Amino acid sequence: MSIDANAKQKATILRISDLSVNRAGSEVIKDVDLLIEEGEFVGIVGPNGGGKTTLILTILGILKPHKGSVLVTHNQSLQSSSRTQVGWVPQAATNIPDHLRITVREFIRLGLLNLRNCILPLSKSDKVKVDKIIEAVGLSSYANTRLNRLSGGQRQRAAIGKALASNSDLLLMDEPMVGVDIESRKSILALLSKLCQEQNKTIVMISHDLASIKKTADRMVYLENTIWFDGLSSEFPELSTLIDLRESNQLASHSANTISSSTLADDEHKVLQLSEKGED
Questions:
Q1: By three-state DSSP, how is residue 146 classified?
Q2: φ, ψ (nearest 5 deg) of residue 137
Q3: Which residues contact 40 (CB under 8 A, 6 or more apart)?
Q4: Is residue 74 very low, low, confident or very high in pLDDT (cuts 50, 70, 90)?
């Protein structure tokens, strides 16, 4: 299942081709092809252990592919400097130690840091940028509040703000709603959708909250070792349908392997018979 080929073409921001990744000696994801365009909100769902986090870590360049490639914006590999164009909001973004004395403003400013400016004071334009981001994520009233005094939803907004401060065009999110209450989830998803629509940001989010992500994301990807569905959220099938599809494919693969093994055994038997005749 795939997106309508007649849909309006946009600039490609992420291209994954024939990707397979091994972890601890096992193939976690296999033969993954994925094309994501600017401004898309893509939800990635699937069972635990299906390879979702492995895919994100490979996009980030933390894990190396066994085969295949990951290209981000203008066909630049993530092994190059283009990695700065990717923002990451991990699961642990809301786990702020109580002893960490850092305000929302200071935390979001960290997103501006890189090797070129880490020892320099913030410019006036950078300060204005941070203020605009704080406003965009709805934390203007908490700009000078310490992170450890915020709710889970507010901390998540701050983490999104930090990713935005890095000028990231592509935001990768690994279960960002873990530990966030229902109302905060709704407001954060609305914020992310707004970022896609108004700022042309591209968001790839892993989520177990299937109902919420279907309502918000433009597109859904079901990943379980490989991609079983990639299409519009409105066309996402029942999970039972995906399970049946996966099992039927596995059965077909098993049958093909059985046939191949039987054919090989027959061929070996024929070779043995010819050999015995030759000896006679």
A1: strand
A2: -90, 5
A3: 10, 196, 202, 203, 218, 219
A4: low
Token readout for 109 is: 């400013």
H or E segment and range at residue 206: strand 202-206
DSSP state of 112: G
Distance CA 162, CA 111 (A): 5
DSSP letter (8 states) at residue 33: E
Secondary structure letter of residue 25 according to DSSP: T
Distance CA(222)–CA(242), nearest Å, equals 8
Bridge-based pairing state of the strands 41-45 and 219-224: parallel
Chain centroid to CA 106:
27
CA 20 to chain centre: 15
157-202 pLDDT, tens digit per residue, is 898 888 888 888 899 998 887 777 788 888 888 888 988 998 899 9
Spatial distance between the Cα atoms of 162 and 139, rounded to a whole number of angstroms: 12
Give CA–CA dist 237/66, Å, rounded: 31
Quote the longest CA-to-CA distance of the chain: 96
Upper half-sphere CA count for residue 69 (Cβ side, 13 Å): 9
CB 10 within 8 A of CB 200: no
DSSP state at residue 209: -
How many other C-beta atoms lie within 10 A of the C-beta of residue 195? 20
